[in-house]
Amino acid sequence: MRRVTYSPSYTLVPTYECFNRCTYCNFRAEPGTDRWLSLEQAEFRLRSLPSGSVIEALVLSGEVHPKSHRRTAWFRRIYDLCDLALRLGFLPHTNAGPLSYEELAQLKRVNASMGLMLEQVTPALMQTVHRHAPSKQPEVRLQQLEWAGELRIPFTTGLLLGIGETAADWVDTLTAIARLHRRYGHIQEVILQPHSPGSSQTEIGEPFAPERLTETVAIARQILPADIALQIPPNLVSPQTLLDCLAAGATDLGGISPIDEVNPDYAHPQADALAAQIRPGGWRLVPRLPVYPQYDDWLYSAIRERVQGFREWISETGQLEPESGEHDADR
Ligand SMILES: O=c1nc2n(C[C@H](O)[C@H](O)[C@H](O)CO)c3cc(O)ccc3cc-2c(=O)[nH]1
Ligand SMILES: C[C@H]1O[C@@H](n2cnc3c(N)ncnc32)[C@H](O)[C@@H]1O
Ligand code: SF4
Fold it and tell me: Which of 216, 243, 89 is CA-nearest to residue 158?
């Protein structure tokens, strides 16, 4: 049976507050109105997870303006949350919007991989869905991908589909990702994320037409180098569309967490249910780490050792539970 991967994950949200206002967002809170996640709360939540059930700590955040006086404290909290997750035996993956070169370099110390969606490179969206979202400027996001390449950070990016772009725009965005990967070799996966309206977005947009996703997968597979994984979020598509996307070249189902914080109206299926859902297509669902194996030697040694421990565990047991049942790497 052919393999399809997913990452057993748990999402930590340092803050929902965000200075951008993407019209499709169901995540953001107004700056100043949201309490930040404390390290104590985060530790409690991570320690409450059934042992051996989760590998990735996805640190997903709203953004504080780069020039705000609160930026340093915000960044510090993100760094500390990653450091905590690592100490508790998880592998962090951070997506906190565009970061400065120095911030990226710092977070590399405490992350197995990082990510930022390119969304779409057409500047036209800065007049529509992104008109109040300066951090969605294509140049800013392209710059971030370039810096991640220079810093040798295994990186996840992707396209948000159905936000007013054309099919020609998909080609431009995918071509930009392919070009960056040919230069730096750091793009581990590309997410094809269908815009999915939720109950708290500021403008109700149309959902991305599911029939078109298969077409997008085929185009992405043609444009992207073969070593880049293609990720489809299984909670945002129908079971049939998911099978069609796998047949068209999708290889991964992303992080599966108790709650999809970005799209809280769409429950993540449990891994068992997902495995059963794709089995009729001849697909076997297997867990993966947030960093793909070809990047292990880019990691700082403390993270690399942790990663290699997880790899041995998955290959020995073929499943997730560690033999000791212990998930605390401190000891
Ligand atoms: O549960 C989710 N995980 C999301 N993830 C998590 C992602 O699936 C995994 O963290 C990576 O595949 C690494 O394992 C993102 C990660 C990124 O770097 C960029 C965007 C996303 C978007 C989502 C999302 O909408 N929902
Ligand atoms: C973290 C990523 O989640 C995506 N994102 C934000 N809002 C939505 C939505 N309503 N539907 C689907 N994806 C969304 C964006 O692509 C962002 O970069
Ligand atoms: S999608 Fe990200 S950048 Fe846009 S408003 Fe939501 S949290 Fe902020």
Answer: 216
Which pLDDT belongs to residue 330? 33
Confirm whether residue 25 is marked as ligand binding: yes
Q: Note the ipTM here.
A: 0.99
Identify the residue whose C-alpha is closest to ligand 3 atom 4.
22
Ligand 3 centroid–CA 82 distance in Å is 20
Question: Does residue 260 line the site of ligand 1, with CB under 6 A?
Answer: yes
245 labelled binding-site residue: no
What's the token pair of residue 220?
């992405």
Q: What is the dihedral of CA 47, 50, 51, 53, to 10 degrees?
A: -120
Residue 321 has pLDDT above 90, yes or no: no
**HEC per residue, 16-69:** CECCCCCCCCCCCECCCCCCCCCHHHHHHHHHHCCCCCCCEEEEECCCCCCCCC
Q: State whether the beta carbon of 97 lies less than 6 angstroms from ligand 1.
A: no
Model confidence, pTM: 0.95
For residue range 143-183, list pLDDT tens digits in order. 999 999 999 999 999 999 999 999 999 999 999 999 999 99
Element (H, E) at 203: none
The CATH code for residues 2-317 is 3.20.20.70
Whether the pLDDT of residue 91 is over 80: the answer is: yes
Do residues 219 and 205 lie in contact, with contact meaning Cβ atoms separated by under 8 Å?
no
Which protein residue has the closest C-alpha to ligand 1 atom 23?
262
Could you give the CA distance from residue 251 to residue 288 in angstroms, rounded to a whole number?
Answer: 12
d(CA 60, CA 291): 16
Q: Name the residue of 13, 15, 20 whose CB sits within 8 Å of the most ligand 3 atoms, as the mutation to test its pocket.
A: 20
> What pLDDT is recorded for position 203?
81
Please indicate whether residue 25, judged by its CB atom, sits closer than 6 Å to ligand 3. Answer: yes
Q: Where are the domains of the chain?
A: 2-317
Does the structure show a pLDDT above 60 at 303? yes
pLDDT in tens, 204-256: 888 999 889 999 999 999 999 999 999 999 999 999 999 999 999 999 999 99
